[in-house]
Amino acid sequence: MEANILHADLDAFYASVEQLLDPALRGKPIAVGGGVVLAASYEAKAFGVRGGMPGRRARELCPGLIFVGGHFKDYQRLGDAAIKVLDDFTPVVERISIDEAFADVAGCTHLFGPPAEIATTIRRRVRAELGLPISVGVARTKHLAKIASQVAKPDGLVVVDPRHELEFLHDLPVELMWGVGPVTRERLAGIGVNTIGELAKTPGWSLERLLGPAAGEKLNALAWNRDPRKLETQRRARSAGAQSALGRKPAEAKIFVPALLHLADRVATRLRTKSRPGRTVTVRVRFADLRSVTRSITLDQPISATAMLAEIAEALVRKVLVDHPHEKTISLLAIAVSHLEKQPALQLELPLGLADDRRRPGTRKGAARWTADRAIDKIRDRFGWEAVGYASVALGQSRSVPDAFRELAEKEL
DNA sequence: TCTGGGGTCCTAGGACCC
DNA sequence: TCTGGGGTCCTAGGACCC
Q1: I need a labelling partner for A220 at 20 to 30 A (CA). Which of A100, A214, A275, A295 fits?
Q2: Residues facing A299 on adjacent strands
Q3: Does domain A166-223 have CATH number 1.10.150.20?
Q4: For residue A29, cis peptide bond before it (omega within 30 degrees of 0)
Q5: Cβ within 7 Å of strand B: which of A 41-100?
Q6: Hey, where are the domains in chain A?
Q7: pLDDT greater than 90 at residue A333
Q8: 3-class secondary structure, A164
Q9: Which nucleotide is nearest to A280 (CA to C1')?
C-alpha cells in the first residue's frame, strides 16, 4: 500500500493574501479583522495571537500588531485557484474549506511521478502562480496526511513512509489528532495520556469510559493509523444556518423579531437558491453570560419560505424565554435548518390545501409567501442582495463581521 | 463595551412502533 | 395481561473543526 493521499493546506491563508497584496506588510505581525481576529500572520502567531481572539486581547499580546481589512473577494479567488492546481493532477479532490483539501493521486502517478514529486510540484506551482505558501502532507491515510501537513507547516512538505507510520505518529502530542480539542486533551492528560503513542497503548474500554463509545473507538483506530475513510468528492451540506452576535440587548420582541427576520431571510434565500428546503428548524439564544440554549422543531414538510422560517424561529425563541424567565439580556441569536431535502425548484411549498398547522406548512397563506419570496429572489438576482428585503435596523450597528466574510464560510448546499 | 460565523458529529433520554 | 427487546425518530446539549 502506497502513500497516495495528499493533504494541502494554505499557510495562515487570509494573512498571507494580505501580505501578498501589500508588500509593506510582509515580515510583519498582522491580523485580518478588527473587533475579532479572523486570521493572523505567522509573525503575529509568534506573539500568541490566534483566530477568534478579541482584537483588544490580540493588541495586548502583540503591541505592534497591524490590523488590515479583509480582501474577501481575493480570498475566494486565490483559494479556488489553489484547489484548481490539485484538480490538474486528479479528479479525486475533497475540499474541506476555502484553504484546504485532500487529493488522492493513486490514479495519476503514471503520468506525474510518485506522490512526493506531485506534492513538490503543487507547492512550487502555488508559490509561482499565486504567490502563496502552502504546506502538504503525504501519507497512506487521510488522517495521517492531515497530521503530516500540520507538522510540515509553515511552507513545508512531509511524506510519511508507510513502513514507518507509527514511529512518526506515536511521538506526537494527542491534540494534533483530528477530533481532539481542549476538552479531550485535558481528559486524556487526566489519565496520563499526552502523546499519540500513549493513547495507542491505552486499553479501549478505558478510552470508552472516558470519552464515550464512538470517540473511544475512533481515537484508538486513529492512534494505530487504522483510518478507512475514503475521499468524498461530492459532499452535500446537511444543514444551513446564520447567526448574529448582538452585543447585549434586552430579551424583547422588538429586538428579536426583526433580528430573526433578518437571519431567516439569509438562511431561507440560500435554501431556495439551491432548492434544498429543510424539515428541522433550530434556534440558539445566547445570554449575557455566554451560556446558550437551543430549541428545535421537526416539521412534517420541508420549508424554505422566509416568513414561515421567521415565524417558527420566533415561536422557538419565545419558548426559550418562557423556560428562562430570569434572563433579561441576549447576546446572540442563531437559526439553523437541517434535514435538508432535494426538491425540484418549481415544487417548493406550493399550497397543499392543508390546515394551517405549524407542522404542515403548506397552507393558503403559503401561496402568497411563495410568490413574495420568488419576487424578492428575482430582484436580488438582477440588482444585488441589498436592493430589497428585510435588512434589519436592529442588526445594522452591531454587525461585527462583514457579509462577505460570512459568505466565505458558507458551504455549498 | 467581556468573545465571530459557518459547519459536522456524537450522546442520552424519551416517545413510539413492532 | 404483563414484560421485554430492538429499532427509529426527535430533542437538547456539547465537543470540535475551519
Answers
A1: A100
A2: none
A3: yes
A4: no
A5: 51-52, 54, 56
A6: 166-223, 239-409
A7: yes
A8: helix
A9: C10
Give A151: exposed, middle or buried? Use CB within 10 Å, 0-12, 13-18, 19+: middle
Average pLDDT over residues A256-278: 94
Q: How many CB atoms lie within 10 A of CB A254?
A: 10
Whole-angstrom distance, CA of residue A369 vs CA of residue A349: 9
pLDDT exceeds 60 at position A324: yes
The residue lying closest to nucleotide B8, measuring its CA against C1', is A238
Q: Provide the CA A128 to C1' B15 distance, Å, integer.
A: 60
What percent of chain A lies above the pLDDT cut of 90? 73
Q: Tell me what percent of chain A is helix, strand and coil, each rounded to the nearest 5.
A: 45, 20, 30
How wide is the angle at C-alpha A14 spanned by C-alphas A270 and A84, nearest 5°?
70
Q: Identify the burial level of A400 via C-beta atoms within 10 angstroms of its C-beta, where 0-12 means exposed, 13-18 middle and 19 or more buried.
A: middle
What grid cell was written down for A266? 439569509
Task: Judge contact between A371 and A301, C-beta under 8 A.
Answer: no
* Alpha-carbon span A48 to A26, nearest angstrom: 18
A181/A219 Cα distance (integer angstroms): 12
Question: Which positions of A make up the binding site for Mg(2+)?
Answer: 9, 99
Class of domain A239-409: alpha beta
Q: Is A18 considered catalytic here?
A: no
pTM over 0.85: yes
Q: Which of residues 235-274 of A touch strand B (CB under 7 A)?
A: 237-245, 247-248, 266, 270
Select which of A100, A311, A314, A349 is catalytic: A100
